[in-house]
Here is the input.
Amino acid sequence: MSAAYATFGLAPAMRAGEVLADGDHRLHRDYVDFVVDGQPLLHRLSDLDAVSPLASDIPPAIFTAQVRALLLQSEAPLPGGRYVLYGCPECADLACGAVTAVIEPAGPAGEDVLWRDFAWQTGAHADPERDGYPGIGPFRFRGAEYRAVLGALLDGAPRPPRSRVLLIDPHTAGLARHAAALRTIGIGADVTHDAHDVPADELRAYGAVAFGPAAGQEQRGAVRGALARAGLDVPCVDALAPLVPVLVAQIEHALDRSPRAQRRLTGLTASGGAADVEVASACRVRLTTHRLDRLRRTRSQEVLDAVLEPGRHRIPLHAGAPRGEAYVVARTSGGVLVTAMTR
Here is the structure.
């Protein structure tokens, strides 16, 4: 084992939810990710669709227990001194698979903390030789830094908030279906026809504000003014798409609280029958087109599902995708971008 130390930190992250064309869905999850040497640990794990145990939607007592376990203040939950670092975002069942590692004291007096023998585990016992992650770890953290970072979650530092969005439109009935879709994937959604008099304390509960097509410029300006007076940096979505899968993607992007420097999906444009996708580091990208046909029905088509290397990539779109009102959605395991298609 190398004597070199790795830095340890935490950062807000999300598993972006999704409404699929067949009516199925994937849950939205907000959580805290582990940052090792300035990079989210999850990014090293082959685009794994998973979340850490430090998620916003688990009960406070369980959240606290998870933190104390990582601080080695309780027994390891799995044989061999192993701890779950990432699990299934839908059910958190070990049978679905989880990334585990041995966490133990290190150093002559046990003052440091070591994470080693990372493995994919689906039962009570792990087999690092068969299911391990070569090249990942071991990581030795300075004990004081490690305990200070995790201990802050027990000392009053805010937990990752559960995502909630305020939808504003004079014709509230038109947004009811969109709000229902957001709630289905785990995003709280409230609908109002007018937010002029919403108190600042109530506005603080929202991670994003979205305006429907009938919301006028005066109303939009009033809401932005109220947010500014309250000192809130809340993203506003101005042009909500009429297609539910695209609207959900727009809201997901607005709710993304992860540090911009740690995002892998960084750019998306679409014109001339092709999409340009920019990624900061190698990652799996799914590209989907959505459009309304002449009968106002949603038509969706997957264009790409592949690992892209860092840089800018031009992806041809299927013939016919640009017809009518159309959008392109790009997704990674933890982020999403949306763009309207231009002819």
About this structure: The chain has a mean pLDDT of 89. The helical segments are 60-70, 128-131, 143-151, 173-184, 200-203, 217-229, 244-255.
